[in-house]
Amino acid sequence: MDKVVATAGAAVADVADGASLAVGGFGLSGVPNVLIQALYERGTGGLAVVSNNCGAMESGLAVLLAAGRIARVTGSYIGANKEFARQYLGGELEVEMIPQGTLAERLRAGGAGIPAFYTPAGVGTQVADGGLPWRYDGSGGVALASPPKEVREFDGTQYVLERGIRTDFALVRAAKGDRHGNLVFAKSSRNFNPLAATAGRVTIAEVEELVEPGAIDPDAVHLPGIFVQRVVALTPEQATDKKIERRTISAPPARGTVTS
């Protein structure tokens, strides 16, 4: 049951062109950068990515996006990614934007074997009614729009039907993992990682610290190894290479000012 793979390149070697990927992370936190870089170096393209966002500050999925390797994105946040916006508006990228909570639940449902569920989020909008531009034609027109979804009333409230998400692969990053694939995530880096991991048919985890089976208290496991097929141990340099999205500092107090 030893799931450790020697290198990130070997771990993603069978991710083919056109594969679908669920990718963990939120902003710059908990992003599987090493696995993403390995995909970039392999030249894999035409990918259908499911992730909260598509990278930032030229890191994470932004590496694949800038290289034209992503064909479709299912996510909930574009942010300040100008290349994402350029490709989307230019008709180069198909984008399905959905509410963030719905994205989380669609991933969780897919991993739990639930094909679909009802949610009030999006009722009365184009999320439910259809017509959201999935792909532009490059001239300002809509080449492909979202279809309408089933809406049903329960106890006087309307709900829209959303489908669970399953992907060919999932890429996640954990603070600690053992050789059986049991994972622990650190603080906010937990974000979409467990959800993405359960949604992938083959889940690959890069871990900052690799430990032996039994070293993790069972009560501390955030994701059981049953959901993980491959584990890649990061080098100390890779584990500590973490960018800061926005560094905010306060101006020093004026000379002579008394602070409490």
From TrEMBL:
- Does this entry carry the keyword RNA-binding? no
- Lipid biosynthesis recorded as keyword: no
**InterPro entries in the cross-refs:** 3-oxoacid_CoA-transf_A (IPR012792), CoA_trans_fam_I (IPR004165), CoA_transf_BS (IPR004163), NagB/RpiA_transferase-like (IPR037171)
Q: Which domain of life is it from?
A: Bacteria
Record keywords:
Transferase
Instruction: Please give the Gene Ontology molecular function terms for this protein.
Output: transferase activity
What Pfam families does UniProt report for this protein, alphabetically? CoA_trans
- Family per UniProt? Belongs to the 3-oxoacid CoA-transferase subunit A family.
Full protein name: CoA transferase subunit A
Q: Which organism is it from?
A: Streptomyces anthocyanicus
